[in-house]
Design brief:
This protein is of the alpha+beta class. The protein contains three helices and nine strands; from the N terminus they run ββββββαββαβα. A six-stranded antiparallel sheet has the order 1-4-5-6-2-3, with no helix packed on it.
């Protein structure tokens, strides 16, 4: 759903992040614009020459469905939780590139650690396509939020690292194809 430019008008005040600067601003009820990307539950909207990211939790402000809480089977194993963690990370998209962070190769490591009876902590190491990207902390927060809504996950620690530096060879074949690199 990239580039469809669906018109939208905010039904309530809502926080948004300016792309690519990463600054949080308040968009007022009645602000009109166009949805340019709607992937993974968050939205990129174009308003008066600027791009803004609206989090999935605020989707109702633009008339969309808010994020759903993912489900785990009863008596889920650690492997089930880990599979759901990776699935959730794959719903996190760079707001400028319509490719998820997993397929972009931005996730360098993910450990699911059982801390109690059916309780887990998740440690993630991730990077950015460019070290100076203003959206870095926003992407980290998105990954953390998507993991922490998983039932049984009590905490997600997401660390931003830059070693090794990211390059296009880290992208999945599907991502390279989608980006026109194959």
């Amino acid at each position: 759903m990239f580039g469809n430019n669906e018109p939208v008008s905010l039904t309530r005040d809502c926080d948004a992040v300016i792309i690519p600067a990463g600054d949080v601003v308040r968009l007022n009820e009645g602000t009109s614009g166009f949805i340019t990307q709607a992937l993974g539950g968050s939205f990129t909207i174009y308003v008066e020459g600027n791009l803004f990211r609206i989090a999935g939790l605020d989707a109702d402000a633009i008339g969309k469905e808010p994020l759903e809480i993912p489900a785990l089977p009863p008596n889920a194993s650690q492997d089930d939780v880990e599979a759901l963690v990776w699935s959730q990370m794959a719903t996190c998209y760079d707001p400028e590139i319509p490719i998820n962070v997993v397929d972009l190769g931005l996730i360098y490591g993910c450990k699911v650690i059982q801390t109690g009876d059916n309780e887990y902590v998740v440690d993630v190491q991730m990077t950015l396509t460019a070290p100076g990207c203003g959206m870095g902390e926003i992407l980290v927060a998105d990954v953390k939020e998507k993991i922490e809504i998983i039932p049984t996950v009590t905490r997600a620690d997401v660390e931003l690292v830059f070693d090794p530096p990211w390059d296009q060879s880290m992208m999945s074949d599907e991502a390279r194809l989608e980006a026109g690199l194959m």
